[in-house]
Specification:
The protein contains 16 helices and 27 strands. The chain is an alpha/beta fold. It folds into 3 domains: about 240 residues, 4-Layer Sandwich (Glutamine Phosphoribosylpyrophosphate, subunit 1, domain 1), CATH 3.60.20.10; about 190 residues, 3-Layer(aba) Sandwich (Rossmann fold), CATH 3.40.50; about 140 residues, Rossmann fold, CATH 3.40.50. It binds fructose -6-phosphate (F6R).
């Protein structure tokens, strides 16, 4: 999704902006641009496509001396991905970048047009810069004009504005989209997440909704609706090592391999002998709670679906799962005996965040399961359990799903333990399985090589069905989503028992069925479902610890003592299958077409 970087100071600004935007690349974008004002020297560069195009355009340009600068990667919402629609947007003497959506832009645009203002782009963002100049032309006071501008905006925004009228100042505002300010001595940085400023700034302030102000002479003047506001900076980590590919071909590949190590970090300090500890939660956190409602999008939704089986089975508490974008508009019945759980890798997904705000307004207690500390969802929640997956750069989520599912499993056991609804023996069995999860997630050369070879038979056909039962049904949904995202082939996840209620009509030798056949969960049932497909000549890739004669291809898994171990091992197989098919198809693995890493628009 769109990314913002800003810098005010004496360092070379072009490199700071381009490096910062590079760090945000993984979020997905289709054009990029920068604007720099040094005294009276004003420079603006834009390019569609990858950042290397913008680098090429700016190769003969260097900025020196004091200046103000802003940059942006755009993921098109209003208007096509063209240079004219790329940010920064120019008025007569000012530039603006913006993330989010200005909902009343059409009204504002019509008003400005009727006053004779010309628009170059189809974007909602351009209205900001023209509004600013309209007010500035009247008052000649830059901050006053900026303040007036943002009072006119409805919707979600994080925005930076620079103007020749105040060539030593960056104006900023945040409402509903993330934005932070980094500090290092007299230098001030802005960004839509902390990765662009790690290693540059030493301290950070995460702006709250409704805050705005300006940066000048190394200082921030901050306001909200109550007037001028004090703020406290916090230390910013300097660890950037996680952002490297470590010799893997793709971030996604690296992240699949990392899962074994990372899952141990997710468990660290939370699994103690035969007890579960979640220090993040107050002792009375679950008091009065008799139901769980989990809300998420995409892959995070699939981990929620998985957990519903675990919660009801282990904790005996009712658990409903909601797709955030549906939940928001269905006028849900919310009662305050329900704990509202959101799951989000980024912590910035607009629909999930808004669903959380709705639940809070209805008086529900909230818990988020998130990978990004200080993200909007984390800050909005009463409590958070961090998944500790590290930065996930591949747009197709892998390790985030694994760690979310692990946290949810831990949480289910924790609730059961606190409510004394689980026996010592069962808790011991669960913890024992948990401890073996890192092994089940190891990618062996043999497995990877086998999937590489096998993938060549799955490049055509008229579609894939991933099928499974119980927790392997959400895993089937996730396997299909992974394949769709990066191969662009049609794939569906389906409950195995439902195939005969319709989809089996599609079965022929060009229908590829990926059958998740765990030994520990309804093996005989899924076996007969797969046999029905085989009888109709579907091509079957079976994933199971038990040999299966009717399979055209077979991946034998090793861990067969607990459903969750089978789940995690099969998850890796489906991830690698999607990867290898997509590599053969020559696709951009880390940045698949049309996708964004963090979906900060509805
Ligand atoms: C798929 C994927 C998306 C995200 C979804 C929610 O690989 O990454 O489906 O899971 O956009 O994002 P988060 O988890 O950041 O809220």
């Amino acid at each position: 999704m769109c990314g913002i970087v800003g810098y005010i100071g004496t360092k070379e600004k072009k490199e700071i902006l381009l490096d910062g935007l590079q760090e945000l690349e993984y979020r997905g974008y289709d054009s990029a641009g920068i604007a720099i004002i040094e005294g009276v020297k004003l420079n603006n560069f834009k390019a569609i496509g990858k950042l290397k195009n913008l680098r090429e355009k700016t190769k003969n340009y260097t900025s020196d001396g004091f200046g103000i600068s802003i940059g942006h990667t755009r993921w098109a919402t209003h208007g096509k991905p063209t240079e004219l629609n790329a940010h920064p947007h120019l008025g007569a003497y000012s530039y603006v970048v913006h993330n989010g959506i200005i909902e009343n832009y059409q009204l504002l645009k019509d008003e400005l047009k009727s006053e004779g203002v010309g628009f170059l782009s189809q974007t909602d963002t351009e209205t900001i810069v023209h509004l600013f100049e309209k007010y500035h032309n009247k008052s000649n006071k830059a901050f006053e004009a900026f303040e007036k501008t943002i009072t006119k905006l409805e919707g979600a925004y994080a925005t930076l504005l620079i103007t020749e009228a105040a060539a030593d100042t960056i104006f900023f505002a945040k409402n509903g989209s993330p934005m932070l300010i980094g500090f290092d001595k007299n230098e001030v940085y802005f960004a839509s997440s902390d990765t662009p400023i790690i290693g540059k700034a030493t301290e950070v302030y995460y702006l709250e909704d409704g805050e705005y102000g300006y940066a000048k002479e190394g200082k921030i003047t901050l306001f909200n609706s109550d007037g001028k506001k004090k703020f406290t900076k916090q230390a910013l980590t300097a660890n950037k090592a996680l952002a490297q590919k470590d010799g893997y071909r793709f971030f996604m590949e690296k992240e699949i391999y990392e899962q074994s190590r990372i899952i141990s970090e997710t468990m660290m300090g939370r699994i103690l002998d035969d007890t579960i500890a979640l220090d993040e939660l107050d002792a009375n956190f679950f008091d009065g709670i008799s139901a769980l409602k989990i809300c998420a999008c995409g892959t995070s939704y699939h981990s929620a679906l998985t957990s519903a089986y675990l919660f009801e089975r282990i904790t005996k508490i009712r658990c409903d799962i909601e797709i955030a974008s549906e939940f928001r508009y269905k006028e849900p019945l919310l009662t305050d005996d329900t704990l509202f759980i959101t799951i989000s890798q980024s912590g910035e997904t607009a629909d999930t965040l808004e669903a959380l705000k709705m639940a809070k307004r209805a008086g529900l207690r909230s818990l988020s399961i998130c990978n990004v500390d200080n993200s909007s969802i984390v800050r909005e929640s009463d409590a958070t359990i961090l998944t500790r997956a590290g930065i996930e750069k591949g747009v197709a989520s892998t390790k985030a799903f694994a760690t979310q599912t692990m946290v949810l499993w831990i949480l289910a056991l924790y609730i059961a333990q606190e409510r004394k609804s689980i026996s010592k023996e069962i808790l011991h069995k669960e913890v024992d399985a948990m401890i073996h999860t890192p092994k089940a997630l190891i990618v062996t050369d043999t497995l990877h090589e086998k999937l590489h070879r096998l993938s060549k038979r799955y490049l055509h056909g008229h579609g894939f069905f991933f099928i499974g039962r119980d927790i392997f049904f959400p895993l089937a949904l996730e396997g299909a989503l992974k394949l769709k995202e990066i191969s662009y082939l049609h794939a569906e996840g389906y409950p195995a028992g439902e195939m005969k209620h319709g989809p089996i009509a599609l079965a022929d030798s060009e229908l590829f069925t990926i059958a998740l056949m765990p030994k520990t969960m309804h093996y005989e049932k899924i076996k007969s479902n797969v046999e029905e497909l085989s009888a109709r000549d579907a091509t079957i890739l079976a994933i199971s610890p038990l040999p299966f004669d009717l399979a055209d291809d077979f991946i034998q898994t090793k861990y067969d003592s607990h459903p969750m171990l089978e789940f995690f091992e099969m998850m890796v197989v489906t991830q690698l299958l999607a990867l290898e098919i997509s590599v053969r198809l020559g696709n951009d693995i880390d940045m698949p077409r049309n996708l964004a890493k963090s979906v900060t628009v509805e």
